[in-house]
Design brief:
Strand order of the largest sheet: 2-1-3-4-5
Number of strands: 5
Structural class: alpha/beta
CATH class of the largest domain: Alpha Beta
CATH architecture of the largest domain: 3-Layer(aba) Sandwich
Oligomer: single chain
Largest sheet: 5 strands, parallel
Number of helices: 15
CATH superfamily of the largest domain: Glucose-6-phosphate isomerase like protein, domain 1
Strand content: 5-15%
Radius of gyration: 25 Å
Mean pLDDT: 80
Low-confidence stretches: 1-12, 24-37
């Protein structure tokens, strides 16, 4: 009995100590720079919570921070502001509005996040299992949904419109279009090639069947476009293909998760497909949304020849009885 009471007292003492430490921590963190205790996930939530109350220029800065976190980690404040179409003072104002003393302490959150990225598949799988056990299936599904909706919002928002229009124009003007997406993004490339081939001629899927990857790009030139879908971790062959296309004068459209990706860094046009990822493998939803939307934009830009191509495609499918009556 006495031993049980002793154990009980020790448990109570431990719990009291934990609550006391928590109270001290809550007081202490008021005097610490945010970067010493805030991680990127916390900062993202803070931005989203305050977003509606921000003035328009800070909202523009906040959108860029959420869509291009890698840029924040590796570029200067001036470079980030230029990419976002803002003045450096707007980025500094955002950092201070979020409670940071200066921009460098704000940037430090993203540097810490970037250096701690890319755990192994085993680690990510284990982390997902832990989350599933602690949150339950319903909450896990809700989190997946929120992440994908955030991805789509950042991909399709109005700030990306100039890139969308440039890509639409380049695809419409191209003599030939080469479509590339490897590994998990092959399905996206296949879909884009499939739809675009129904709208126009001269669309080729770069797939490398039988080891013919280099052969698929042999005739690419300055009148052509290579559209490359990529996301971290970046495929070596995608980077090689992008460099080959640029070196031969072709227009490179990068559909990528960051403007700093190895493909986007050489691209003439970059359409961002940000990827907030809670799962083991990167999501293909943002890239598929780009493929689907770009195809529709090409269709809207086409004239009578596009309608003729669509009619020919439909007629051929009927002749072969591809679909059930």
């Amino acid at each position: 009995m006495f031993s049980e009471l002793a154990n009980y007292d020790s448990k109570v003492t431990f719990i009291e100590q934990m609550f006391t430490l928590r109270r001290y921590w809550c007081i202490l963190r008021r005097f610490l720079p945010r970067s010493t205790y805030m991680n990127k996930e916390d900062l993202d939530k803070l931005i989203e919570a305050r977003f509606d109350g921000m003035p328009p220029k800070l909202q523009c800065a906040a959108r860029y921070v959420l869509s291009s976190p890698k840029d924040i980690a590796v570029q200067s404040m001036r470079g980030v502001a230029t990419n976002a179409g803002l003045r450096p003072a707007s980025m500094l104002r955002l950092a201070r509005d979020l409670g940071f003393d200066n921009y460098e302490s704000f940037k430090a959150v993203f540097v810490d996040w970037l250096t701690g990225q890319d755990p192994s598949l085993v680690t990510r799988t284990a982390q997902l299992r832990v989350r599933s056990a602690s949150e339950g299936t319903h909450e896990l599904l809700s989190n997946f949904l929120r992440a994908e909706l955030l991805n789509l919002d950042r991909t399709l928002n109005a700030e990306n419109e100039p890139s969308w229009l440039s890509a639409q124009q380049a695809l419409s003007d191209a003599r030939s279009i080469y479509v590339l997406g490897l590994r998990s993004l092959f399905s996206t490339a296949f879909y884009f090639h499939y739809v675009l081939s129904s709208l126009r001629q001269g669309v080729s899927l770069v797939h490398g069947t039988g080891g013919t990857f280099a052969d698929d790009l042999r005739r690419i030139s300055k009148e052509d476009v290579l559209i490359c879908f990529s996301a971290a971790p970046y495929s070596v062959m995608s980077v090689q293909a992008a460099s080959f296309a640029v070196d031969h004068g072709a227009t490179l459209i990068a559909v990528s998760d960051s403007t700093l990706s190895p493909v986007a860094s050489r691209a003439n046009i970059t359409v961002l497909a940000p990827n907030v990822n809670l799962s083991v493998f990167p999501s293909v939803v943002p890239h598929m949304a780009v493929a689907h939307t770009l195809a529709q934009l090409v269709a809207t830009a086409g004239g009578e020849q596009t309608l003729e191509e669509v009619a020919n495609s439909e007629a051929q499918l009927r002749e072969f009885g591809v679909y059930t009556p």
